[in-house]
Every structure is written in C-alpha cells, then in structure tokens.
C-alpha cells in the first residue's frame, strides 16, 4: 500500500511506515497534479503539512483514497467533514509539535523585547561605523520576568507556552471559551515539578491586563485582534502569532506598530501565505519567521512516527 507524503516526512516516520509494510513516496507533487498522481500510482494515503491542500475536488477525484493525514495540528487545508462523509479517515498529530511552537513563541518574545530582529538587520550594515548609535537605539530593552503573558487559547500549545512562561517567572492569564480551567504542570530536570491551575477569563480582560499576548487558536472566520481590540490593550504591548494567519488584522497591526501603541510583533503565520504583504515584511518592529512553528527535528520525528502509528493501526 502506498503513502504519498507530499510535504515531506521524517526519516523515522518513513522507517516506521516501511516496517509496517507501506511504500512511502516523498516526491513533491504540484497541487494541480495531486489527483492524477494519486490515481495513477494507486496511492491510498496522502500526508500533508500546511502547504498542500486536500479539498473536495481531490477527494471526489480519488476514490481509492483511504486516509488523509496532517502532520501538525490545524486541518484548515483539508475538507475534513467532506472527507469523512466519503468514508476517508482524517488524522493529525495535535500533541507532537506543542513544545516546538511554544519555543518559537519565546524566540519571538525574546527577540522583540531586546530588538534582536532589528539589530541583526542593522549590525552588519552599521556595526562598524555606528556602533554607539546602535547601542543607544537598542538600549531600552524590557525583561519578560515579572510581566503578564496573555494566552488566547489554552489547548496543548497554549499549555506548553504557559509552562515556559511560568518557568521564566511570568504571570500567566488565559482566555479560552472551551476550556474553563486547566492544571499546568511545570516539570524540572531532576524529576521535581510544580502544578498550578489557570482559570480562563474574558478575552477583553486578557487584552486589557496583558503585557504580552500570544495567540493559540484554530483558523477563524474573522479577526480575533483588530483595531478595536488593540485600542483596549496596554501601551507598549507585544503581540505574537504562531497560530494561524488571518486571526490578526495585519493592517491594524502595522498602524499600531507605527503609532507606538504596540511595541513589537512576532509573526510566523500570515494572512496571505505564501506571499505575505510587504508592509509586514519590511516593518522593523516585527520579528518574522516563515511558518516554522513545528519545524524542529524533534517535532518532525514525533509527527512522523505518530502518523505512522495511526496509519498502521487503521489499515495496517
């Protein structure tokens, strides 16, 4: 039985699938050619990440498809309900990339409060001629310790982010309309741990109280953060989005960055992927990454082996 891993899969995932009797194809097939390729090669399983889309047209055109798998959490690039209505299994790996995404959130937070994203642009250009000027420009850093982190969405990734924030000595507040409260266990290297309970509060209060805000929500029909919401936030707030493009109004964000209302933003996902707006890409107050939240070797190993395990258990 053949598996097309169109957006790639880890070596450990390939080995696990091959051990289970599957043939794994890692050729990158163009979006418009996927249906033909699946049919011509008798592919039973299609695995994607965020790049490839599996919509109704592909599902209808591929009667031999048995499983669609998403290496990661969000499945907004798959017509999940329609696939299930056709008897196709749809799987994902919600737990595999939580730590990786949470660490990227803090990479953006640390970058933002110490201007690393901008100093890394300007030091190569001016470091030898304007060292003192740059030193002065980046001299007003802010510590994360003791500040309040507002987490919107306290699922697996939100909880992983909360653990890191707590370990750093931050106050954590959260808003989640589906999870009223959650126990978060912070584990240490020597086996000791501390557990604290986070109780969800209103989105409005999180926006009002937080020094920094990070979003961990699925794709939405509208913006979670727009001009009105930004107006209620603290002056000098930092905003990070490593969740989904389209949950922040990018025009309102740039306006707030330019006015100084928002100190910095960390953006891993964009409204117009894979062609983000130049106003976002060129803004010196935004720390940028190209949708790499789950892109660590460790996460990809976990994703690959978890997908393999689910596939083998379903049709192995």
Q: How are the secondary structure elements laid out?
A:
Elements: E1 2-5, H1 11-19, E2 23-25, H2 34-40, E3 43-48, H3 56-61, E4 67-70, H4 80-85, E5 89-92, H5 98-113, H6 116-126, H7 131-137, E6 148-152, H8 156-167, E7 171-175, E8 181-187, E9 193-199, H9 203-209, E10 212-215, H10 227-232, E11 237-241, H11 250-259, E12 262-267, H12 278-281, E13 286-288, H13 297-315
Parallel strand pairs: 1-2, 1-3, 3-4, 4-5, 6-7, 6-10, 10-11, 11-12, 12-13
Antiparallel strand pairs: 8-9
Summarize the structure.
38% of the residues lie in helices and 20% in strands.
Describe this structure as you would to a colleague.
The structure is a single chain. With 316 residues, the protein is of the alpha/beta class. The protein is 38% helix and 20% strand. It has a 6-stranded parallel sheet, with helices on both faces. Strands 2-1-3-4-5 form a 5-stranded parallel sheet, sandwiched between helices. Helix 1 runs parallel beside helix 13 and helix 5 crosses helix 8 (156-167). The radius of gyration is 21 Å and the shape is globular. The protein starts with a strand and ends with a helix. The model has no long low-confidence stretch (mean pLDDT 97).
